[in-house]
Amino acid sequence: MTLAKEAALDAAMAARQSCCTCRRRYFHCIPLQTLGACLECYDGRPADPASYTAPPAPHLLAA
């Protein structure tokens, strides 16, 4: 698999696994068509911290 193909597949999976509200990327696909967000954003049910990755940190470097 080429790097471009791998990057495209990762971008596609990131779109399916990321919540639009809280920007967390989960390790499973989120039902965006039915709920529109992850379960924590939809109904307040707390998510297991082991089920998602932290959102990317903002770029705060000077250079």
Structure overview:
This protein is mainly alpha-helical and 63 residues long. The chain has one domain. It contains 2 helices and 2 strands. It has helices at residues 3-17, 39-43; strands at 25-26, 52-53. A two-stranded antiparallel ribbon has the order 1-2. The longest helix is centred in the N-terminal third of the chain and has 15 residues, at 3-17. It is globular, with a radius of gyration of 14 Å. It starts with a helix and ends in a 10-residue tail after the last strand. 6% of the residues are buried.
Give a quick summary of the entry:
By secondary structure, the chain is mainly α. It is 32% helix and 6% strand.
Layout of helices and strands:
Elements: H1 3-17, E1 25-26, H2 39-43, E2 52-53
Antiparallel strand pairs: 1-2
Main sheet overview: 2 strands, antiparallel
Lateral strand order in the biggest sheet: 1-2
Fraction of residues in β-strands: 5-15%
Order of helices and strands: HEHE
Shape: globular
Report the average pLDDT across residues.
87
Radius of gyration, CA atoms, in whole angstroms: 14 Å
Helix proportion of residues, in percent? 25-40%
